[in-house]
Amino acid sequence: MGCSSCSSEGGTPRGCKNNGTCSSGGCNKLDVFDWLGNMSLGEGVSPFEMYEVRFKNSRKGFFRNSNNLSLQVGDVVVVEASPGYDVGVVSVGGELARIQIRKKAPDLKPLESKKILRIANQAEIDKWIQGRTLEKDVMYQARSLAVNLKLEMKISDVEYQADLSKATFYYTAEGRVDFRQLIKDMADKFKIRVEMRQIGSRQEASRLGGIGSCGRELCCSTWLTDFRTVSTSAARYQQLSLNPQKLAGQCGKLKCCLNYELDMYMDAIKEFPKSDIRLKTEKGNAFHIKTDVFKRQMWFAYEGEMGMISLTPDKVKDIIKMNKDGKLPKDLKEFTESIEKAEKLVEPGYENVVGQDSLNRFENSFKKKKKKKKPFGGNNFNRQQGKPNSI
Question: Model confidence over 216-233: pLDDT tens digits?
């Protein structure tokens, strides 16, 4: 029942204590740990009546517990919808829900929000699961209808409301799409109320999920909730090659992880001089080649020469100051510092304690032995006596 609300098909969630084969590691994506759940409220403080309810994929909403139901995280509840009702799972409650509202919906008025009607019974849960099973087939049929109408759009996901009276179709498109005829065709075919909702390529990747080039699940489908803009300058600050195939993620946009360490790089680069300044010496002008932020080294090369000279940022600043004063050093090599190599750790020697065989014991065993050809005809000699054999 838990995995039916997740977009990933099959598998057993970790909540069922079966070692978690679900793609998101649990019953749903973007799980929240209630770190305030074990804290008791003070005297005279009433529990917070707002709860965060999670629906398919990363869609969440805040609802008011007006009926004073005894709710826990993970309970399947019936909430108000427009029209009808919907079924979701309680993800956050108590004081943590108050913090989430301040962060995500500061203008939310509790008295005007939708209500939690009741805890879902088995019939409502079965109907909710039935809607999940219909979504995949309906999505393929909706794609066929869009292709027949020659609409430049891609329907990536469908979400049924729990009472099966409404379905939300999520699509991506480059420009504006006139889908009025498409809505009429889908309403006639599926006999439901149709709602179209356009999402971006990043939101599409977060809903569908996947494995990134790092070998882990996509951040947007597991824990990342806000999508900040990523520019190519983030790659330049980190000295990365501007290769679109390496910098782009599953969504086709720049990877969100380019922003994770950007602030650290920008703070470190502030101590480095600008790379567009050329160093003037008596030997010639030297221009910047590359910078190693971790080793605090800057490489320069003379015009027309192939070799590179490594300098520290402090030495580069000293040369720039000399050039401003009208002085020219003889050569950049005078400012190079000998980098002390780190002492190598003494590696423990290998001892064949348990009597294991040598690793190269099979090197000579597979070589084919060349067979000596036997002489033939009248020139054959007896190997033992050294005389020609009698014919």
Answer: 889 888 888 778 889 888
What CATH number does domain 127-203 carry, 3.30.980.10, 3.40.50.2300, 3.30.300.20, 3.40.50.300? Answer: 3.30.300.20
213-239: b or e for each residue (b if 16 or more CB lie within 10 Å)?
eeeebbbbbbebeeeeebeeebbebee
Mean pLDDT is highest, among 46-50, 56-60, 176-180, 371-375, for 176-180
Show the DSSP H helices in the chain as ranges: 95-104, 122-148, 180-190, 201-208, 219-222, 232-237, 244-247, 262-269, 313-324
User: In the chain, where are the structural domains located?
Assistant: 3-34+45-120, 127-203, 228-270, 279-335
Question: What is the C-alpha to C-alpha distance for residues 266 and 337, in angstroms, rounded to an integer?
Answer: 25
How far, CA to CA in Å, does 339 sit from each of 296, 301, 319, 323, 336? 11, 19, 19, 26, 9
Phi and psi of 18, rounded to 5°? -120, 35
**Can you say whether residue 75 is alpha, beta or left, with left for phi > 0 and alpha for psi between -120 and 50 degrees?**
beta
Measured between alpha carbons, how far is 299 from 287 in angstroms, rounded to an integer?
9
Is the pLDDT at 382 greater than 60, yes or no? no
DSSP result, 1-67: --GGGSSS-S---GGGTS---STTSSSSSS----TTTTPPPPTTPPPP-EEEEE-STT-EEEEE-TT
Looking only at the bridges linking them, the beta strands covering 193-198 and 166-172 are parallel
Pair of tokens at residue 184? 């009429």
Residue pointed to by tokens 């033992």 = 384
Name beta bridge partners: 62. 52
